[in-house]
Amino acid sequence: MRADPAHPLPFERVGAEPVPPGLRHGRPSSLFTLWFGANVQFATLSVGALSTSVFGLDFAPAVLAILVGTLLSSGLVGLFSTRGPLTGMLQLVQARGPFGRLGNLPSAAFTVVNGVGWCVVDSLLGIFLLRDLTGMGFGPALALMACAQSGIALVGYRLIHAVERGLAVVLVLVFAVLSVYGFGQAKAQAAVDAADGSAAAFLLVVAVTAARVLGWSAYASDYSRYLPATSPPRRVFLAAGGGSAVAGVWIGSLGAALGTGGALTGPSGMVSGLLPHALGTVVLLCLLLSTLASTVIDLYSGAMAALVAGFRLPRWTSVLVVGGLGTALAWYAGHGDFASQLNDFLLMTGYWLAPWAAVMIAAYWGRGRPLATDGHAPGRPFGWGLPCVLLALAVEIPFMNQSLFTGPVAAAHPGLGPLGLFAGFAVAGGAYTLLAPRRRSASGGVTGHHPDAHEQPVHEQLVHEELAHEELAHEKLRSES
Q1: In sequence order, what are the beta bridge partners of 7?
Q2: Could you tell me which residues come within 8 angstroms of residue 95 by beta carbon, excluding any fewer than 6 positions away?
Q3: What share of the chain is helix, strand, coil (3-state, %, to 5)?
Q4: Comparing 16-20, 136-140, 256-260, 433-437, which segment has the lowest mean pLDDT?
């Protein structure tokens, strides 16, 4: 975004409405540094460590499982990012096509929850680091994290890209040093035995790793919508998906190596106990900065999701509300079992995001693209997206295997639990492809053709018209604020 002469500070002025052509700027390469910087961080390291220290997978198969899970979900980040330059719209606004205006509200609500949840996870990781670095108490450390992450998210899109770009360079050097120690001391065997066998552990690591990156896919185009509409989709895909994949595989595998040293009790102990004191302090400080940068992305998009859900708030107010919720929940969650809470959270988000992503793929890249005149266009209340996701959730319930709830299939055969995410993805995508009407050609026949970057589907035109009316209300709020 560009500075507004009436507002000298570079605060983002665009809310849930499409980005005007005059504000489009940047290159696809900026997406590589954004998603690389967002994934080279402590949460990625911690999730990788779960594979060997908690799930009991040996090092080599753990790396393979991390590779599979990361590539699958990073591909979605790249794919959804290509929609940003084409439409100039937030990811959730585009979801109004297959879900409808009212049918999209559960997705918006879940994205707020996803943003708040990751804010909690990353805040806790930051608190662990601050306590190791300074001896600071839990309350003051939480307050410091809340102020820092909210400040960056308040400024918005441009500062987020700048922070991630700077950290990408620094963190490559830091994690290169950490990799020398971590991979050098890795053991071939896991620190614990796999409770349900190595095959079940492998599937669980794939599912948990994929679920971590799936959280990014829910708002991938939020960070590409300012790019010019002429940005080549292939370059956008490779930059966004590549940045996420390279960082995710590298840091996740490093976490698996560190996890072979023992059970994951305190995340920061993986690093501070491995490196010489002075070097360990530098690495922990950089990890703190990376954790902060990652939280900002979730906080920013969680706040945007609240606007899409219909809350008539200025963007900065939404950021403070979502950040406040994350801070309050972090205070509560900070006194529990971190590893168990992280596992539960990752799987819970995956149960919704996997079917949601399948519907989006079927709607915009499959044969089930919605018609503007079929009663399921974004100007209409409901589309086929929500019923398909609910159907997939019903299929997933028997496979759920967490401390909060265990389904009958997972109870009888724990090793089948991770298959729930993949079953939900397949069911939602298949159901939407079968149920949603297809595009019709000018001659009246059904066609699988999709618009290129220079065409705009009718249902996207309706989204723009709907958002134009919303922008009038938001403009009034901004002028009053």
Answers
A1: 4
A2: 104, 107, 356, 360, 385
A3: 70, 0, 30
A4: 16-20
Report the pLDDT value the prediction gives residue 231, as an integer from 0 to 100: 92
Please give the DSSP secondary-structure letter assigned to residue 22.
G
Helix (H, G, I), strand (E, B) or coil at 453: coil
Give the DSSP per-residue string, 129-171.
HHHHHH---HHHHHHHHHHHHHHHHHH-HHHHHHHHHHHHHHH
Residues 330, 331, 334, 336, CA torsion sign:
negative
Residue 425 token pair: 């993805």
Contact 459, 97 (CB under 8 A): yes
* One-letter amino acid for residue 454 of the chain: H
Model confidence pLDDT, tens digit, residues 371-385: 433 334 456 788 899
Residue 289 in contact with residue 278, Cβ under 8 Å? no
pLDDT mean over 199-218 = 87
Fill in the DSSP letter of residue 55.
S
d(CA 258, CA 254): 6
C-alpha distances in Å from residue 263, one per residue of 31, 49, 60: 35, 9, 18
Higher-pLDDT residue of 462 and 390 is 390
Going 364 to 308 to 350 to 239, the CA torsion angle's sign is positive
Q: pTM higher than 0.90, yes or no?
A: no
Distance CA(148)–CA(141), nearest Å, equals: 11
Q: Which pLDDT tens digit goes with each residue over 286-337? A: 878 877 777 777 777 788 788 777 777 777 777 788 888 888 888 776 655 6
From CA 97, how far away is CA 462, in angstroms rounded? 9
Res. 265: pLDDT tops 60:
no
Residue 4 phi, psi (nearest 5):
-90, 125
What's the rounded Cα separation, in Å, for the pair 370 and 308?
Answer: 20
- DSSP conformational letter for 398: G
**In the block, residue with structure tokens 């295997």:** 401
CA distances from 465 to 20, 21, 315, 459, 471 (A): 13, 16, 20, 10, 10
- Which SS3 state, helix, strand or coil, does residue 39 take? helix
Contact 388, 428 (CB under 8 A): yes
Angle 42-53/59-81 helices, nearest 10 degrees? 140
Residue linked to tokens 């190596």 = 257
In the chain, the amino acid numbered 284 is L
Lookup: tokens for 343:
């596992």
Residue 145 near residue 136, CB atoms below 8 Å: no
**Nearest 5°: CA angle at 118, between 107 and 210?**
75
Report the distance separating Cα 203 and Cα 194, nearest Å: 12
Rounded CA-CA distance 174/122 in Å is 19
* For the chain, percent of residues with pLDDT exceeding 70: 77
Q: Which amino acid, residue 254?
A: L
